[in-house]
Write the structure tokens for this entry.
Amino acid sequence: MTTALTQPVFASHLNTKFRVLRDGQEPVEIELVEVGEFLQSEHQERFSITFRGPGDTFFKQGMYDFDHSTMGKFRLFIVPVDQKDDGYYYEAVFNRLIK
């Protein structure tokens, strides 16, 4: 069962490894390196998360299947935001309407 994809859940898994699953290819391990501040207004809530991946594998902007030992499997839309000596950085932004 997949855990809810909320800011507190991601914050509790900061600095842990996630696997990006790719059809017909070996999974790639990336690390959750930042969880942004949770912001809430009357009608919406929002936060962002940042992953660091290896320097030898680049993910284009798009939807990817993720797997985590505690959180389970889920899909995220990630965007490449930086490249440093230690790898590529990707961001996922959550922006949800409040009922």
Observations:
- The beta strands are 17-22, 25-35, 39-40, 44-53, 62-68, 72-84, 87-97.
- The chain has a mean pLDDT of 94.
- The chain has one domain: 7-97.
